[in-house]
């Protein structure tokens, strides 16, 4: 029973003590005046009566009522019901207030009554003050309070004749029961009657309509957010203008949280004075008047629910985890069915008559029922995860969170994790975990309704029915007697508050009230306590839990077959069948990824433990440890599936004898797992074991079993249901229901004990408490031992791992919350070399372990109630335990070192190239899988070749890994991965767990620009010193201090690798000088790629001939000073003395100039007139431009001495020179560096001021103009038109700073508007006009717009038609960088035009290449499956976009050249992008460069002679290390590959040739791609070697020489589809969608490493079939080809290569000298052509027709529409001119079929060894028939045709199947006229054939022929 009301208080308005306008509450009277003993008077009531502050009011307001909630220090809630009414202010009070107000009014101007009431502006009339009646109670009967206070107010207002003292006295003495569903009628003595109903159970909250109102105000989604926020301990703030609504909303939210209780700050109505409470750091649920919304908005981490506006605002920094799916969506849909039942019917065609909606009260209960079901689903089976740690004197219960989450499959779920860690759940466990207590609706639901809820999941109507049933029970709980709720309470009349009250509320007589209270108290003390005994029972546990969401992977992972494999393997291990076990082990390790397999392993191992010990031999021990490690490596620190828990007793059971008296246990080999250093794991294990022992303590002796059985059976009877046993105890109830009925769970035992406890004697109780306490204590000792086993490392030096693991690394801050300080990731990831634990010796491992164990012991013993004496004893014992264990371990480690080492696979030595030497011999390593799925099998098929175990070798040329897969099931495939040392781009250290589950910290990841990745960890036998040595040597070889240290230059020299080369005898002073200068200038050189940084000072006239200051220090300084007026270098260039003109003429570029007819070396006048260009030797000493070749093509009219001046205007002195001329249009292609920018700095001066004399700058810019004019004039088409129009007449004063000519027109890319304007005016072409519309004053944007991608797009990025250009074209287009050509005014008078384009810089190429490398060769497996991640990273790299730009610019230049205009490409320094563009243009325009010889010439000329900086871009030396690898040449090869793909018939070389060059340009195997220019190569003496020197050297020094040699032996570089059209200009599509990723980047063959070193790639010869050493049957040649392992082109060569190989083999067998493959192929082609001609009746044609009228011959096969329909013509090769008409090619296509046919005819006739007519008997019941038979000895067949000329074979007899040929007899229907002896039979394995010849001799001949054929076979 309890008092209905504790206190009655009267609070009135009083002035503020500090004289401010706002008043404060004053308690006038309170009853009773003395505090109750059990319930002191709550403080601060006056604040809560008027939460918005005490203020006077100008008018009388109606009375208000609300209930505030106060929480005291003991978390007891007090309900303060407040009824407020207004009374006129008494004069004294008013006077006080008005004086005060008057002062304030003066201050505030016309601010009105500040703070009192804004409604009375004038002098105040009558003011009203609030007065509040307050009822304080611990019970929550809102309606009773409202009625009671209303009655008191009514008596006062209406002046009823009832004593207020009596009413108040009666109210304070009214006593009602707390719960139990009783009904009580009370009266306060004023003729009133009220019925109070108490709820049936006290534990269920009372919500009335508050939940339904909350949903109405906020909606489903918002309420669900608030629900999750409250559960996950966020701050929730309600806003409303109504106080009653705030109370209701808070009450509703709390009701939804049942069965959890909210334990943080809960203030439904917060007074204004206490608003700072909102900034508290703890969670809360608070309601505040909406007037204070502004204050609420400043709070950053508070979720604000506005009840009036229906919104919930979640700040950005707050994340509310949602309910786990599918519960979130299920809950949402049920709620909508309850709130909006019409939603289901809204779409029906014939909706039923209106459905009856539930009343608000009923709807409220339905909504609560939904949440009650939700909790039952969330917490289902929670009782199986409770640990009974103590039963007496009070139950101590712990909850095993990890097991709960693991069994639900929700370890990752943020919501559940936070709920389980919250205070509310801790309260839930301590309150509801108790095994013996009263139960309520929730207990029933969780225990008995789970199955029903699962079954109903997919049936909404059944769910709704269940919800309604639950709602009924909740409703009945609140309203046990619905019919009798009759109240009779007087109420004041309408608008009574407006009537003038007769008097203020009277002062009550305290004495009277106190007397009534005392009377009632005395009466109660005398009466017996009417306590209704609570019905306590054992709480039902319900079914064990299942996962909320069945993961599909679980089904797959737990297949019975896998478990069978695990069981078999373990039984093989223990039966000693080691070979069988070894075979199964890989499958077992794979299976152990699944949870069921891991549990199965633990169960099986348990069966092999007898008496807690299992002694194994060494091999068994290794197997068991390996499987345990595999199990544990996937365990998180929480061990939510109980695997580590199951293995813990086993690691102390399995052991092996090392020597007499020294035993090694398994725990010393499984320490390196994060779970062992997690305090939560040990606590859960400890409590689980304590529970087992406490349960055993109370079981009847009959039930009790011996402890060993308890342990041994720990996974016995119930392991199979796929549940995670949190602990392998049969008796601990974390898991499934016990198997037998008599096996009571620990909770059952505890419940029984709690029931008996009151009946026991005092001594018996003491005894039980002591027994339990000593049980806990002994377990604590046991666990201190266990922990020391698993935390102290066997080897002190390897303890780094332990110290860095969570709980030990930072022992002082280890916390016991579930996730804090636990490391969820893999152990390896957490390593950090800077962790401060580098020096293992000095760190105190034992101390750390002792502290860890002590903290654990402290926590568990305090929680389990161990006495402090015992605890002190434990603290003393722990250091001794640790010390003893350390001593034991020392012996074990000493002995374990003596064990014979594990047999490791033999190291396989790699094959080396001639001249390649080993620097570091094999270091044993594991090669780990990277992101390429090839090696791991993956989607391309094949086995998991990686990880592989082997060795890494470092040679002077390569880094090589050779080894074998660690997975023995893959077979003994040798895995090879290698790359040239020079190609290394990145080397980083890594830490990884190795495949054999041992932890090896020294890992290295090497990435190369040839797209290889070596991700390896060194074996433990390789010391860290060796690993470090490997890194240093690798670095030394990768970045030699001097270019002479590279492999190509040291090849064959005698010095030992790894040491600097011995100084060779100098040929002259130059070598020494040069190397000195090299080192001196190396740093300066790197920074001086762009020399334009310095200010340019024009030299005085005397020094005219001397190069500018920049030149003197350019690149490598050759001499310290130059003589004035000379162009020859000083003596420092000794080696170049022998570089005569004749050897210059031998160079590639000179040969090409002569081929193109570009000028001559002769300077005689007779030739000069006819030749527009000449070859100038001006640079033969490399004085003008170091990076240009010695001979250059310049216009005939320009003199050599002018070139020196022209060169100054260009970067790096690279002035424009001709590099190619079109044979058809005679247009020329020129190349140069970009313009200097500062070279014409004098022109920045005031433009109109006449210059006193011509300056140097003026003259050089004039030279520049003249030079360009000379180029224009040299073009035959323009020579006459513009010969006289020289530029010298124009003033140079207005020249812009960056451009060659002030009047050059600019074609700009930047203005799309101008582009569209010019397209409107210009004639419509595909690009509009390239010619600028400058004459009409506009800018020509057309060429540029197309380049910038702004022009009208072509379909598929197709090139435009050749005839798109307007007739008025510029003679010369200068393609320059957009940045160079800013601010230029267009001028139509000149004949050249500037085309500014935006190009990427080399640093962008470098960055892009890095990303491309990572995309193609990722170091980690892709996160998302499929090619999506690869394509995304490929797109991020922007590599294809750069290829697209290059192709686009090149096609533009090709178009311009093809239309007759010349082009000068003048980009950057003229040696990167310029080279790419110029080379591509020549390749596309001139078929010669698409041959093997031509391509070589192109690379030698444009890349080598014109000075592409191979050494600088490839970072060949130490000096270039910082600049990194920039693959400009590789990018060019990629562009060529793209063109090759689109035009496969136009190239003589194969795609392999491009890959070969791509690999070797970075490999340093050849000298070809070393150094930055011809000049440097001459300096080193590489360019012109004496013939004798070359002869003595077997190794190829030049890549071209090598290609030539190899091409003689094999057609690997040759393209069989080559069928060129001589005049073809290629115009490839350049859109990114048309580009393909080059397979050079992605393919790899693990069988032999990269296939580009041909000698290495050709594996050892296969033995011929016949030779078998054992004389057995010939072995089959068949073999499996794996795409990731074998080289497919070699394993399955194309048909032509195979035929050519076969041809050579047969010739060798026949003893003839084998013919070269090229000759054979040419002969076949020639014969083919000849045959085509004979057949073609005059028109040259062929089987291999190629003149397709289509302008693209991208593929070898076309469909051509002919008159007869479409015919397929295979286009391989042709000598037909491209001018042939369409009809000609159609005829050719038609004829080709007949040619094909006749070809087969002839081939067939060659195979006719013998033929003639024979009669053959048909099959059963068929007649004899005459057929034409052909005996074919080659194909070993007897074929037959209908008649002689028939071409179609009707059938054949395979002679391989013939067993005998015998004379035959005539049968029925045989020819009559034939002799009997002419019959013969051929007997085969299948049937007998009857034949008959025309006569006996021919029959004899046939038999002989067939016999001889058979004997030949």
Task: Give the biggest beta sheet.
Answer: 7 strands, antiparallel
Average pLDDT over all residues: 75
Quick one: how many beta strands? 45
Return residue spans where pLDDT drops below 50 for at least 5 consecutive residues. Answer: 94-123, 550-557, 702-742, 799-807, 809-842, 1052-1140, 1163-1168, 1238-1257, 1279-1367, 1383-1388, 1586-1593, 1660-1674, ...
Strand order of the largest sheet: 25-24-23-22-28-27-26
How far the N terminus sits from the C terminus, by CA atoms, comes to 115 Å
Approximate helicity band: 25-40%
Task: Give a written overview of the molecule.
- This protein is of the alpha+beta class.
- The protein is built from 61 helices and 45 strands.
- A 7-stranded antiparallel beta sheet has the order 25-24-23-22-28-27-26. Strands 42-41-40-39-45-44-43 form a 7-stranded antiparallel beta sheet, covered by helices on one side. A 6-stranded mixed beta sheet has the order 31-32-36-34-35-33.
- Strand 44 (1879-1884) and strand 45 (1888-1892) form a beta hairpin.
- About 22% of the residues have low confidence.
Short recap of the structure:
This protein has 1913 residues and is α+β, with helices and mostly antiparallel strands. Helices cover 38% and strands 13% of the residues. A seven-stranded antiparallel beta sheet has the order 25-24-23-22-28-27-26. Strands 42-41-40-39-45-44-43 form a seven-stranded antiparallel beta sheet, covered by helices on one side. A six-stranded mixed beta sheet has the order 31-32-36-34-35-33.
């Amino acid at each position: 029973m309890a008092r209905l009301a504790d206190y009655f208080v009267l609070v009135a308005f009083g002035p503020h003590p500090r004289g401010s306008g706002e008043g404060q509450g004053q308690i006038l009277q309170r009853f009773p005046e003395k505090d109750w003993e059990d319930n002191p008077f709550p403080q601060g009531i006056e604040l809560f009566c008027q939460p918005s502050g005490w203020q006077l009011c100008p008018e009388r307001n109606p009375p208000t009522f609300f209930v505030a909630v106060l929480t005291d220090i003991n978390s007891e809630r007090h309900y303060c019901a407040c009824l407020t009414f207004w009374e006129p202010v008494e004069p004294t009070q008013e006077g006080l207030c008005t004086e005060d107000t008057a002062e304030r009014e003066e201050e505030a101007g016309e601010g009105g009554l500040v703070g009192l009431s804004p409604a009375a502006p004038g002098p105040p009339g009558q003011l009203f003050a609030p007065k509040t009646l307050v009822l304080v109670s611990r019970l929550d009967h809102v309606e009773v309070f409202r009625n009671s206070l209303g009655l008191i107010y009514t008596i006062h207002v209406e002046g009823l004749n009832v004593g207020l003292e009596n009413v108040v006295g009666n109210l304070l003495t009214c006593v009602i029961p707390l719960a139990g569903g009783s009904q009580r009628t009370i009266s306060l003595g004023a003729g009133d009657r009220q019925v109070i109903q108490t709820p049936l159970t006290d534990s269920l909250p009372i919500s009335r309509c508050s939940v339904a109102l909350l949903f109405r105000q906020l909606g489903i989604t918002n309420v669900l957010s608030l629900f999750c926020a409250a559960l996950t301990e966020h701050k929730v703030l309600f806003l409303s203008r109504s106080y009653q609504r705030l109370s209701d909303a808070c009450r509703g939210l709390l009701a939804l949280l049942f069965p959890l209780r909210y334990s943080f700050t809960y203030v439904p109505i917060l007074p204004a004075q206490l608003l700072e409470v909102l900034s508290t750091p703890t969670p809360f649920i608070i309601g505040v008047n909406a007037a204070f919304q502004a204050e609420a908005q400043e709070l950053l981490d508070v979720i604000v629910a506005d009840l009036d506006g229906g919104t919930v605002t979640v700040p950005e920094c707050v994340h509310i985890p949602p309910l786990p799916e599918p519960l979130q969506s299920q809950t949402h849909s049920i709620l909508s069915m309850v709130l909006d039942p019409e939603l289901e019917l809204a779409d029906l065609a014939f909706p039923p008559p209106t459905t009856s909606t539930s009343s608000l009260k009923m709807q409220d209960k339905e909504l609560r029922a939904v949440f009650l079901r939700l909790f039952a689903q969330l917490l289902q089976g929670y009782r199986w995860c409770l640990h009974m740690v103590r039963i007496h004197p009070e139950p101590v219960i712990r909850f095993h969170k990890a097991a709960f989450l693991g069994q639900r499959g929700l370890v990752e779920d943020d919501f559940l994790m936070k709920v389980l860690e919250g205070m509310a759940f801790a309260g839930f466990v301590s309150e509801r975990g108790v095994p013996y207590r009263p139960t309520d609706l929730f207990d029933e639901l969780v225990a008995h309704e789970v199955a029903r809820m699962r079954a109903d999941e997919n049936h909404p109507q059944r769910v709704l029915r269940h919800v309604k049933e639950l709602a009924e029970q909740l409703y009945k709980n609140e309203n046990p007697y619905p019919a009798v709720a009759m109240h009779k309470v007087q109420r004041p009349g309408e608008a009574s508050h407006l009537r003038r009250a007769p008097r203020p509320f009277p002062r009550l007589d305290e004495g009277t009230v106190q007397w009534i209270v005392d009377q009632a108290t005395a009466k109660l003390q005398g009466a017996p306590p009417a306590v209704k005994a609570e019905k306590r029972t054992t709480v039902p546990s319900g079914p064990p839990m299942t996962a909320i969401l069945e993961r599909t992977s679980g089904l797959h992972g737990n297949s019975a077959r896998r478990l069978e494999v695990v069981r078999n393997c373990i039984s093989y291990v223990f039966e000693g069948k080691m070979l069988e076990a070894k075979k199964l082990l890989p499958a077992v390790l794979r299976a152990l990824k699944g949870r069921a397999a891991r549990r199965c392993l633990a169960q099986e191992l348990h069966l092999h433990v007898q008496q807690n010990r299992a002694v194994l031999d060494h091999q068994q021990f290794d197997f068991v440890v390996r499987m345990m490690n595999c199990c544990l490596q996937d365990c998180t620190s929480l061990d939510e599936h109980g695997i580590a828990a199951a293995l813990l007793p086993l690691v102390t059971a399995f052991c092996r004898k090392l020597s007499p008296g020294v035993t090694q246990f398994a725990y010393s080999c499984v320490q390196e797992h994060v779970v062992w250093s997690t305090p939560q794991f040990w606590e859960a294990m400890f409590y689980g074991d304590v529970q087992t022992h406490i349960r055993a303590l109370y079981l009847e002796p009959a039930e009790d079993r011996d402890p060993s059985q308890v342990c041994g059976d720990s996974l016995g009877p119930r392991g199979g249901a796929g549940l995670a046993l949190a602990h392998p105890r049969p008796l601990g109830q974390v898991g499934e229901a016990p198997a037998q009925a008599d096996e009571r769970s620990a909770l059952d035992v505890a419940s029984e004990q709690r029931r008996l406890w009151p009946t026991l004697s005092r001594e018996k109780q003491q005894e039980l408490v002591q027994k339990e306490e000593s049980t806990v204590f002994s377990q604590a000792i046991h666990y201190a031992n266990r922990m020391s086993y698993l935390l102290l490392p066997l080897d002190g030096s390897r303890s780094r791992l332990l110290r860095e693991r969570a709980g030990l690394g930072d022992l002082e801050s280890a916390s016991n919350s579930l996730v804090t300080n636990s490391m969820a990731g893999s152990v390896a990831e957490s390593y950090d070399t800077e962790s401060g634990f580098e020096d293992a010796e000095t760190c105190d491992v034992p101390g750390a372990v002792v502290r860890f164990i002590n903290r654990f012991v402290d926590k568990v013993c305090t929680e389990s109630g161990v006495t402090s004496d015992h605890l002190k004893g434990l603290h003393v014992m722990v250091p001794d335990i640790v010390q003893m264990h350390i001593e034991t371990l020392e012996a074990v480690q000493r002995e374990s070192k003596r064990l014979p080492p594990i047999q490791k696979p033999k190291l396989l030595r790699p094959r080396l190239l001639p001249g390649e030497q080993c620097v570091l011999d094999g270091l044993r390593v594991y090669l780990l899988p990277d992101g390429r799925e090839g090696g791991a099998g993956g989607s391309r098929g094949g086995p998991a070749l990686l990880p592989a175990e082997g060795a890494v070798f470092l040679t002077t040329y390569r880094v090589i890994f050779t080894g074998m897969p660690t997975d023995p099931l893959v077979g003994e495939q040798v895995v090879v991965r290698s790359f040239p040392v020079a190609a290394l781009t990145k080397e980083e250290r890594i830490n990884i767990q190795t495949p054999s589950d041992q932890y090896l910290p020294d890992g290295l990841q090497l990435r190369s620009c040839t797209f290889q990745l070596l991700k390896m960890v060194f074996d433990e036998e390789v010391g860290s010193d060796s690993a470090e040595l490997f890194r240093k040597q690798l670095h030394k070889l990768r970045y030699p201090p001097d270019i002479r240290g590279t492999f190509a230059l040291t090849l064959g020299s005698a010095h030992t690798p790894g040491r600097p080369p011995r100084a060779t005898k100098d040929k002259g002073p130059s070598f020494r000088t040069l190397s000195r200068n090299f080192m001196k200038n190396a740093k300066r050189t790197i920074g001086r790629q762009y020399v334009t940084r310095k200010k340019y000072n024009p030299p005085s006239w005397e020094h005219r001939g001397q190069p500018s200051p920049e030149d003197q220090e350019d690149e490598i300084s050759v001499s310290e000073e130059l003589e004035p007026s000379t162009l020859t270098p000083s003596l420092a260039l000794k080696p170049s003395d022998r570089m005569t003109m004749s050897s210059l003429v031998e160079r590639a570029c000179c040969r090409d100039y002569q081929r193109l007819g570009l000028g001559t070396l002769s300077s005689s006048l007779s030739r000069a007139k006819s030749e527009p260009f000449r070859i100038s030797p001006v640079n033969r000493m490399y004085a003008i431009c170091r990076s240009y070749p010695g001979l250059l093509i310049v216009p005939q009219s320009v003199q050599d001495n002018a070139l020196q001046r022209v060169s100054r205007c260009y970067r790096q002195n690279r002035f424009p020179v001709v590099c190619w001329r079109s044979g058809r249009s005679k247009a020329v292609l020129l190349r140069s560096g970009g313009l200097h920018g500062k070279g014409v700095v004098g022109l920045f001066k005031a433009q109109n001021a006449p210059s006193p004399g011509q300056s140097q700058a003026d003259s050089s810019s004039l030279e520049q103009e003249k030079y360009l004019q000379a180029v224009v004039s040299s073009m035959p088409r323009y020579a006459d038109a513009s010969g006289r129009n020289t530029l010298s007449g124009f003033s140079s004063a207005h020249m812009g700073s960056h451009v060659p000519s002030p009047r050059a027109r600019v074609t700009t890319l930047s203005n799309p508007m101008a582009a569209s304007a010019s397209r409107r005016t210009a004639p419509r072409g595909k690009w509009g006009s390239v010619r600028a519309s400058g004459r009409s004053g506009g800018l020509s944007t057309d060429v540029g717009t197309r380049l910038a991608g702004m022009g009208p797009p072509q379909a598929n990025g197709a090139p435009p038609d050749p005839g798109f250009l307007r007739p008025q074209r510029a003679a010369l287009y200068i393609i320059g960088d957009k940045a160079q050509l800013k601010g230029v005014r267009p001028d139509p008078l000149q004949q050249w035009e500037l085309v500014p384009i935006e190009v990427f810089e080399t640093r962008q190429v470098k960055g892009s290449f890095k990303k491309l490398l990572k995309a193609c060769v990722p170091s980690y497996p892709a996160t998302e499956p499929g090619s999506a991640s690869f394509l995304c990273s490929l797109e991020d790299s922007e590599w294809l976009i750069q290829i697209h730009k290059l192709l686009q610019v090149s096609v533009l230049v090709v178009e311009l050249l093809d239309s007759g205009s010349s082009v000068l490409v003048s980009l950057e320094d003229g040696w990167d992008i310029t080279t790419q563009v110029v080379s591509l243009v020549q390749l596309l325009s001139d078929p010669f460069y698409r041959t093997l010889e031509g391509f070589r010439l192109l690379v030698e000329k444009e890349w080598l002679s014109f000075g592409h900086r191979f050494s600088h871009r490839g970072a060949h030396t130490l000096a270039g290390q910082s600049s990194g690898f920039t693959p400009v040449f590789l990018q060019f090869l990629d562009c060529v590959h793209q063109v090759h793909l689109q035009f496969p018939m136009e190239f003589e070389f194969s795609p392999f040739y491009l890959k070969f060059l791509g690999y070797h340009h970075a490999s340093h195997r050849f000298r070809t791609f070393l150094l930055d220019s011809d000049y440097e190569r001459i300096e080193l003496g590489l360019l012109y070697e004496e013939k004798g020197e070359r002869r003595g050297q077997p190794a190829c020094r030049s890549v071209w020489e090598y290609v030539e040699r190899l091409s003689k032996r094999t057609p690997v570089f040759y393209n069989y589809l080559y069928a060129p059209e001589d005049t073809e200009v290629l115009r490839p599509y350049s859109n990114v969608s048309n580009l393909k990723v080059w397979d050079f980047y992605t393919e790899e063959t693990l069988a032999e490493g990269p296939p580009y070193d041909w000698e290495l790639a050709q594996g050892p010869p296969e033995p011929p079939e016949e030779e078998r050493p054992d004389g057995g049957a010939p072995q089959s040649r068949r073999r499996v080809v794996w795409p990731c392992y074998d080289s497919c082109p070699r394993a399955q060569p194309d048909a032509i290569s195979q035929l050519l190989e076969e041809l050579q083999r047969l010739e060798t067998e026949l003893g003839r000298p084998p013919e070269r493959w090229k000759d054979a192929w040419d002969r076949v082609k020639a014969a083919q052509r000849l045959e085509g001609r004979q057949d073609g009746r005059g028109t040259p044609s062929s089987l291999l027709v190629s003149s397709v009228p289509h302008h693209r011959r991208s593929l070898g096969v076309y469909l051509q529409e002919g008159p007869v329909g479409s015919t397929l013509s295979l286009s391989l090769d042709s000598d037909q001119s491209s001018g042939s008409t369409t009809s000609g090619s159609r005829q050719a296509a038609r004829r080709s079929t007949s040619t094909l046919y006749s070809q087969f005819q002839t081939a067939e006739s060659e195979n006719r060894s013998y033929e003639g007519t024979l009669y053959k008997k048909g099959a059963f019941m068929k007649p004899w028939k005459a057929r034409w038979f052909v005996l074919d000895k080659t194909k070993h067949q007897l074929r037959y045709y209908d008649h002689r000329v028939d071409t179609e074979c009707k059938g054949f007899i395979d002679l391989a199947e013939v067993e005998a040929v015998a004379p035959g007899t005539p049968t029925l229907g045989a020819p009559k006229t034939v002799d009997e002896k002419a019959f013969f039979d051929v007997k085969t394995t299948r049937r007998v054939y009857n034949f008959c010849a025309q006569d006996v001799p021919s029959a004899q001949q046939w038999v002989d022929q067939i016999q001889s054929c058979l004997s030949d076979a």
